[in-house]
């Protein structure tokens, strides 16, 4: 008997798909399916820019200029003065912001600016006195830049040397720089923010980039930040650094008033001294003028001898220096009393009129 040969079944070989290639998408998609998106906007920094009540019109215009330069800002209404600064952390949390820039006015004259990292109220935060404010509308510079465009940040070499400036540099980079692919930003870089450290202050300028070889034209605004303190937390915490050269504006005004007062006192003293030392009688004629009256030499010699004898007698009879100074002091005291009496009389007259 012969063998029975069974036909072998053909096995379908699987195609090996390379790992790098993606499988083809289905031809149809259900409406309930979520479309997977690849997000480009990764750095989601948001800055809450607002002010407390009591700032002047120029300070408000400066805040508006800063808002136009920062498309990643969030606006907020004015904060009441009665509220503590720690409330700002809650406001930032409600607005989904992780940085805050608060403008605080004092006496409608002085402007303070707080820059803080409010993410989890961890800090740090810095307080600055803003000086030499010039807004965009006030300057009318020739430069111009696209609204919402991203800026370059240029820092002075001192920001890499001093430790407190290193911290401020990182804070400024995270606050002022516009995140890449932000919805409100433009995909262009056409202006530069410069931070220069000079005279213990930080000078802020905004320039338009004219050409690639470094041609610049100022846009504005411009202001000077005088650092006061750096805190460990957000608007609270331990003081990490304090400016030893800082003098408050009210103290500066007090010193100026005092110097003006000293000018008045000096003027009164000079007047009193002039009254005390003023001669009563008119000045005498030239010494030895009798010599020129007579032409006879023997007679003139006799006159000169008599004058010399008279001077010698006067020297012997002259009062000592201590008595002379005593007389001068009495004379000065009399003159001072006279001036004081005159002033009192004027005051009494004014009081009677009232």
UniProtKB/TrEMBL annotation:
It comes from the Eukaryota. GO terms for biological process: ribosomal large subunit assembly; rRNA processing. Residues 1-33 are annotated as: Disordered. SUPFAM superfamilies: Class II aaRS ABD-related. Its main location: nucleus. Keywords: Nucleus, Ribosome biogenesis. One of its GO terms (molecular function) is rRNA binding. It is found in: Nucleus, Nucleolus. One of its GO terms (cellular component) is nucleolus. Residues 45-236 form the Brix domain. InterPro entries: Brix, BRX1. Belongs to the BRX1 family. Required for biogenesis of the 60S ribosomal subunit. PANTHER family: RIBOSOME BIOGENESIS PROTEIN BRIX (PTHR13634), RIBOSOME BIOGENESIS PROTEIN BRX1 HOMOLOG (PTHR13634:SF0). This is Ribosome biogenesis protein BRX1 homolog.
């Amino acid at each position: 008997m012969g063998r029975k040969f069974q036909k072998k079944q053909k096995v379908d070989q699987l195609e090996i798909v390379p790992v790098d290639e993606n499988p083809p998408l289905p031809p149809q998609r259900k409406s309930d399916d979520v479309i997977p998106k690849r997000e480009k906007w990764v750095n989601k920094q948001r800055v809450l820019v607002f002010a407390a009540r009591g700032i002047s019109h120029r300070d408000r215009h400066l805040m508006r200029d800063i808002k136009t330069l920062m498309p990643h800002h969030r606006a907020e209404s004015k904060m009441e003065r009665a509220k503590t600064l720690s409330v700002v952390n809650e406001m930032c949390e409600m607005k989904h912001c992780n940085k805050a820039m608060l403008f605080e006015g004092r006496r409608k004259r002085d402007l303070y600016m707080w820059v803080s990292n409010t993410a989890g109220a961890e800090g740090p935060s810095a307080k600055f006195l803003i000086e030499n404010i010039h807004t965009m509308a006030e300057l009318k510079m020739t430069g111009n830049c696209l609204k919402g465009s991203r800026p370059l940040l240029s820092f002075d070499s001192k920001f890499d040397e001093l430790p407190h400036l290193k911290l401020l540099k990182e804070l400024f980079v995270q606050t002022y720089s516009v995140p890449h692919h932000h919805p409100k930003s433009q995909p262009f870089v056409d202006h530069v923010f410069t931070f220069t450290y000079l005279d213990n202050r930080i000078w802020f300028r905004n320039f338009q980039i004219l050409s690639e070889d470094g041609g610049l034209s100022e846009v504005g605004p411009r202001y000077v930040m005088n650092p006061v303190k750096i805190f460990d937390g957000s608007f609270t915490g331990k003081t990490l650094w304090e400016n030893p050269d800082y003098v408050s504006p009210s103290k500066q005004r007090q010193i100026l008033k005092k110097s003006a007062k000293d000018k008045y006192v000096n003027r009164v003293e000079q007047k009193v001294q002039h009254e005390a030392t003023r001669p009563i009688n008119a000045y005498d004629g030239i010494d030895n003028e009798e010599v020129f009256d007579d032409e006879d030499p023997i007679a003139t010699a006799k006159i000169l001898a008599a004058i010399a004898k008279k001077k010698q007698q006067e020297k012997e009879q002259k009062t000592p220096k201590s008595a002379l100074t005593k007389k001068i002091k009495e004379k000065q005291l009399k003159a001072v009393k006279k001036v004081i009496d005159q002033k009192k009389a004027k005051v009494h007259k004014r009081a009677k009129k009232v």
